[in-house]
Amino acid sequence: MPNFKHNIAVLLFLILSINSYSQNNLKCKNTINELEKLSQRKNTPQEFLHGYDLRKMTINLNVDTTSNFIEGHVTIEGIALCKTPDIVLQLADELSISKITSEGKNKGFTHKDNLITINRMKLKKGERFETTIYYSGNPLHGLYNKKSEEENIKVTYTVTEPFYAKNWIPIKEDLSDKIDTVEAFYTTPKGLKVGANGVLVETLENNASTTHHWLSSHPIAYYLISFACSDYYEYNLYAKPKSYNGDSILIQNYTFNNDKWIEAVKQVDYTVEVMNLYSELFGLYPFADEKYGHSLWHDATWSGMEHQTMSTMKNFNHGLQAHELAHQWFGCNVTASDWHNIWLHEGFASYAEYLALEFLEDDKKQLGNYKAYRQFGAFMSQNPIYIETAEEQKQIFEGSITYAKSPMVVHMLRFFINNDDKFFNVIKSYQEKYKGKNASTEDFKKLLEEETTKDYSEFFNDWIYKGGFPEYALNYSQNDSIFYISLKQSHSSGNNFFDIPRLPVLLVGTNNENLLIELHQTKPNETFQTPVDFKVDNVIIDPANDILCSVKSIENSLNIDSIVHEKTTKPSHENTRAIKNPQLIYLKPNGGNLTIESENIVKNVTVINTNGEPVLEASLNKDDKSELNISELASNIYLIVVEFDNGQREIKTIKK
Which keywords has UniProt assigned to this entry (predicted)? Predict the structure, then answer.
């Protein structure tokens, strides 16, 4: 999906045709009996949308950069899944149809309510059909024309996720009916280029125009079909993943034809590194026999959109490159079964940004910031990741859920598996099993359990199908060399208990000794004990922001006498370790003040609310201990951004 400008709190043809047909028959097995009844009763046009399988689309359109007006025709080829008298397609009412033909003859049709009903097709089950729709108009959505006088930019482009493909082409907006082949002929005035799906077969020079012939031969979901048109400057390079047996993979880039953007396009050299990385982690780039690339657009709403084999981008930001390229695996190659499961696209693509930082840049500051901001963004909503009502764009692409919570849940899954070989093998198997197909959350869960031989029902119930996150209150005390922890878990929006198999807790001594332990809490209130050979002065829950949780309180007032005779749990020592040279910060609510202790010099502190607004800023330039007056702040969750003399750290906290 498009990478929305939803800054989360500050930043907040014909191959596989037999397989495709078999796949669609399987998808229809639960509804085929209903489809067979279509000819036996009075039907609505919407029902006939599901009576056939799209096989090929041939697009012939005249486009330019002066407006979003289009004119031309589209040929649809398909096969009937049942006996059906009519064929129904979706096309927006603002587009005017001049005629429709089939087998060289004009066909009767109706066009209303964004539906075309092509009459008297009289198809038998398994019968192939071909029909051509001639139309023109200015789409209200989905196809846009933008200009910038300052930069001398004029560009026309499509962006149709989730429900706007019908605004520029006749289509069936059904994620499960991926089209085997899309062949496109875009005719433009001379001097313009068109970026589109698949391979640029040829450019045909006419008297005053150029026809750009593109061919996509991999199954493609309706919303991923696209083009972008401008007087582009072309900048090409090549990737050679270790697992690729061919020569190299073309990375074809269309940037705006001015000095600023011709210089900026060199940033896409980063895409080569990312493609090589993702091919190693997820499996070979799925469209290696075609290409990957970028076309620029000029838009104030979207940052980027992962059109299959050619993402359309606002700029060449590294994070945006990493996100949209990851979608070629998560969204393009394997497409969600429906929009309820959008986290399978955006959760993995957003987390892939983190992987690019981790493996290519090894920037611990950026890694920490990524997790802190995503967690903070996730706190803004209590909704589940599985989208219960997926009828509107704002429901599907709720930033705090789809772009913040989803990648954090993917990170937690990796953290809980605690074995990168297993984690990435699951992803590779997922990509291979559902290559060119659709998958649901349950499909992914089943494969995950098969690969890891573990039951993840509770994880999916807690983190995918239900909303909210755990909140912790920790009380501790120490008796000589034994350290006691009383941990209470509550729910941010409900009563269910989150089973966290690995909750990291950092114990810090008076002389900066430290020990990281991991707790597996099995009930809402539980007591733990562990030997510690130093005097503990501070305790930090989830110091590296690996768990989506909030900390309500940490106190040193546990009555040891009241628990010494109770059954206590020993922490897991499998991952218990000291942290070398930790960058530490402790936030201690103290009446109306917030005490900040650090071994580094604290220069500036910014407190940000859940709307992403700075509500308190202070310049300190102090080490050891600083006091920040927070008495005027309302009770809420806040992100504390602390700038050191040698870096930055983000900590989430709750003011009661």
Answer: Aminopeptidase, Hydrolase, Metal-binding, Metalloprotease, Protease, Signal, Zinc
Q: What are the beta bridge partners of residue 233?
A: 255
For residues 576 and 123, which has the higher predicted lDDT (pLDDT)?
Answer: 123
Closest CA to 219 of 2, 511, 437, 397: 437
Q: What is the DSSP letter of 464?
A: I
Total residue length of the chain:
656
Distances, alpha carbon 619 to alpha carbons 55, 603, 608, 638, 644, in Å: 63, 6, 15, 18, 11
Return the closest-CA partner of residue 239 out of 291, 286, 197: 291
Strands 249-255 and 292-296 come out as parallel
Domains and CATH numbers, the chain: 17-326 (2.60.40.1730), 335-465 (1.10.390.10), 470-577 (2.60.40.1840), 586-655 (2.60.40.3080)
Pairing of strands 304-305, 311-313: antiparallel
C-alpha dihedral sign at 373, 377, 382, 387: negative
As separate numbers, helices (DSSP H) first and strands (DSSP E) second, the chain gives: 13, 35
Q: Is 567 exposed, middle or buried (0-12, 13-18, 19+ CB in 10 A)?
A: exposed
pLDDT at position 583, please? 45
The pLDDT assigned to 484 comes to 94
**Cα(262)–Cα(423) distance, integer angstroms:** 39
Lowest mean pLDDT among 11-15, 70-74, 413-417: 11-15
